[in-house]
Design brief:
Layout (H helix, E strand, L loop, with lengths): L1 H22 L4 H15 L5 H13 L4 H39 L1 H6 L1 H28 L4 H19 L6 H36 L2
């Protein structure tokens, strides 16, 4: 019975990621909103906090965000087989579509209706990315550190865009990660000092 349930979960992972891979335009960023809807809201397999952590890991590790997300979610839910099923599921639609298009690429691009369709899709992709960002922002813990990071990154990105400064988004992720680690160790050191002072104070009491 347990094996049957696990097999069904693996199949569900494969079919869900196959569907998302087939109908998501715009890459991993556009896929985030659909992943959250499927796994956090519909199936309740991931909490809001776990989903935010998954997104951060997928963005900061090498490789496409879509595949990283599929592997992470699949492994968390179904172990190795879950990771394998989710990754294969999200890759197959893109592979098939790109392969078919490559067979008649020049003719495909020359179709007027295809050009208009992609213009409409671009607008939809912007909405998906924006809505995913808003949802994650609402789910983020409200504290001073997070507020400072968000405001700083938005301000710097806006300024660099207006000034045409070329600065990769990878560096934003790395810098914020380093700042987060620094804050963690500073907090840990302070807690250690506080505990030591309390212990010394208790030892001095006769």
């Amino acid at each position: 019975m347990k094996k049957k349930t696990e097999d069904r979960k693996i199949l569900t992972l494969f079919l869900t990621f196959f569907k998302i891979g087939a109908f998501t335009f715009g890459g991993g960023y556009a896929m985030i909103a659909l992943l959250e809807n499927e796994f956090s809201e519909k199936k309740n397999w991931l909490t809001k906090e776990e989903f935010i952590d998954m997104t951060a890991i997928s963005e900061s590790t090498p490789g496409p965000t879509a595949i990283n997300s599929a592997t992470f979610i699949g492994y968390k839910i179904g172990g190795f087989l879950g990771a394998f099923a989710a990754t294969i599921g999200v890759c197959i639609p893109s592979f098939l579509i790109i392969y078919i298009i490559s067979l008649f690429f020049d003719k495909f691009l020359s179709l007027k209706y295809v050009g208009f369709a992609f213009k409409g899709i671009q607008v939809g992709v912007i909405y998906l990315i924006f809505s995913a960002g808003i949802r994650m922002l609402k789910s983020l813990e409200k504290n001073l550190f997070n507020s400072i990071i968000i405001i700083s990154v938005i301000t710097i990105m806006t300024a660099f865009s207006l000034l045409a400064v070329n600065f990769s988004s990878v560096f934003y992720i790395l810098i914020c990660g380093v700042i987060g680690l620094m804050l963690y160790y500073i907090t840990k050191i302070r807690k250690g000092q506080t505990v030591r002072k309390v212990k010394e104070k208790n030892d001095d009491i006769p």
